[in-house]
Amino acid sequence: MNKTISSDNHSRHRCEWASTAPDFPHYHDNEWGFPVDNDQRLFEKLCLETFQSGLSWRTILSKRENFRAAFKGFDFHKVALFDEKEITELLNNQGIIRNKRKILAVINNAKRAIEMIGKEGSLAAFIWRYEPDENTLPPPETQTTCAESIALSKELKKRGWQFVGPTTIYAFMQSMGLINDHAKDCFMREKIDLARKGFVRP
């Protein structure tokens, strides 16, 4: 059952997960599922999904501003230049997840992002090639991977990216609008459908 909320004297339904943490309603209503074609935002979300691996999104979202400050706004050109000095600073930064493997993966992936832009033109142009056909997807909130997330994960790994498993990539696709996984009775589902219809694919 989805959470019912009241606004402007009428009831609305949100996806059930949106009621499980204080920060989730705003994130659900204003970010999750809207299509994104900005390379820096796409890279940021891939990085945050890396840090979420084995943890909850609530933990990551609560620290997102700390992550942005620590990783120079997730400017991959800057992150790619991080060396031992920055790595040590990150490992001592109590505002983020201090996991050395994940930190090194983000630095590695920044380098891979620059390579990809050189070959493909943009991260967005490459990633949106893997947008699933909505007609082939099962009902919302019923799966954690799909054929396209598996294929994109495989290709990213082939190109040297790290911490980009199929489940991580599926969560990335949900949040960046490649999939509309809002519940059928969620008031945001129609808004995301409209946003996706008006979105110009890169």
UniProtKB/TrEMBL annotation:
Pfam families: Adenine_glyco (PF03352). This is DNA-3-methyladenine glycosylase I. The lineage of its organism: Bacteria, Pseudomonadati, Pseudomonadota, Gammaproteobacteria, Oceanospirillales. It comes from Marinomonas pontica.
